[in-house]
Amino acid sequence: MQVKCYEARLSHETDKIAVITASISLGAYYSPVIRAKVQYTVYAEGGLVIKFDVKVKESAPPLPRFGLEIIMPEKTENMRYFGLGPMESYADKRLVAQMGVFSSTVTDNYEPYIRPQENSSHSDVKWAIVSSVAGHGLLFATTGQDFIFNASHYSAKTLTETAYRQDLCLSPLTYVYIDYKQAGIGSNSCGPELSPKYLFDEKEFSFSFRLMPVFANDADPFEEIKRS
After folding, report:
1. What is the DSSP letter of 192?
2. Cα dist. 9→13, 37, 40, 129, 178 in Å?
3. 91 and 15 housed in the same domain
4. What distance in Å separates the CA atoms of residue 179 and residue 202, rounded to the nearest whole number?
5. Residues 41 and 89 both lie in one domain
């Protein structure tokens, strides 16, 4: 699906905040599947809150996922998060994961399946920090609802378009994914289809999270989520 922006405007402004509102759609150019209002609230003290109000076409099939891809620069290698880990966890693949604070590198946060595919996302995340070795990075924090977090040197597009893992080319960039929800993984390749309870079939939903620049060694993400 392609993103089309119909409007983006400054809808509210004070000494402390500026609110930018955009109207977008996702789908084929002539046939939108998703329409959304996106609100960016930028704070003078630093950081912003991104909020999506989403409506999905009634006739659309269940979605695989919905969220935001953020591309971070070279040498953004460290990651730390509070959620289910340390292994990947999904709606139907999570019983072995535990809730806690986990640290890894972006390189190690990758499961080398023979056929490249979605991997190593972490569910029920309340905050995540992705930073350089020097500590400069971004904090992603809940505004009340947990999210799904992933960081990788491979984009979702690359994983979709590459047939075999030996054909993957490691990117120096870091792709961060903050998802509202993902459908379950399922096992239709070697078993039954995905159970209906793990389908992502909501037709209307809202989703928001906070994003702010931090120095990883000094940041206290637990304090930050109290302010969100």
Report:
1. P
2. 11, 12, 10, 29, 24
3. no
4. 14
5. no
